[in-house]
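User: I've been trying to design a sequence by hand for this structure and keep getting stuck. Would you show me what you'd pick, starting by listing the structure so we're on the same page?

Assistant: Good idea, let's start from the same input. This is the structure you sent:
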């Protein structure tokens, strides 16, 4: 599959919630949990949304974008051998020119882009990885989930593989 870094993709109509990140930010855990409550994008990214740089939402869709420190993302993706694949999916030049500083720069720029677009979008919330596992109430409210078990069963923070 060819990825164009400037091309936007339309979110599938059947998906109620799209969760995206640059990777290494708890995205899979959140998608897996939310899938019990909402129709959500694919945890394995078979739909090409999870690591999509640009995504056009249908008016009624919701979105959660998870941001994290680019150095933590780099270490997490490298450790799990996902760095090149995620760089390709995100349209990072780092896919062709394997240079850590380039990945960090492109990741920062992407996250700044997402932040700049966020102000005008009521359908989107942005959560930092460091706050993700304490954000159950915020996510529940954003997604209009009424199940009383949502917050108590929300995933707990696990130790990251790159932490001692």
């Amino acid at each position: 599959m060819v990825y164009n870094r400037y091309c936007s993709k339309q979110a599938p109509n059947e998906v109620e919630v799209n969760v995206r990140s640059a990777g290494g930010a708890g995205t899979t855990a959140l998608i897996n949990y939310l899938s019990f409550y909402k129709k959500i994008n694919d945890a394995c990214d078979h739909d090409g949304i999870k690591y999509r740089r640009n995504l056009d939402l249908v008016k009624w869709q919701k979105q959660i974008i998870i941001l994290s420190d680019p150095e933590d993302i780099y270490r997490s993706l490298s450790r799990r051998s996902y760095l090149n694949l995620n760089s390709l999916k995100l349209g990072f030049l780092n896919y062709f020119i394997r240079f850590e500083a380039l990945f960090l720069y492109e990741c920062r720029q992407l996250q700044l882009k997402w932040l700049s677009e966020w102000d005008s979008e009521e359908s989107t919330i942005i959560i930092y990885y460091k706050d993700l596992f304490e954000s159950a109430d915020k996510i529940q409210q954003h997604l209009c989930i009424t199940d009383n078990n949502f917050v108590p069963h929300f995933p707990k923070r696990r130790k990251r593989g790159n932490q001692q």
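That's my pick for every position. To get oriented when you compare it with your attempt: The domain at 13-142 is CATH 3.40.50 (Rossmann fold). The beta strands are 9-10, 17-21, 55-56, 62-67, 124-128.
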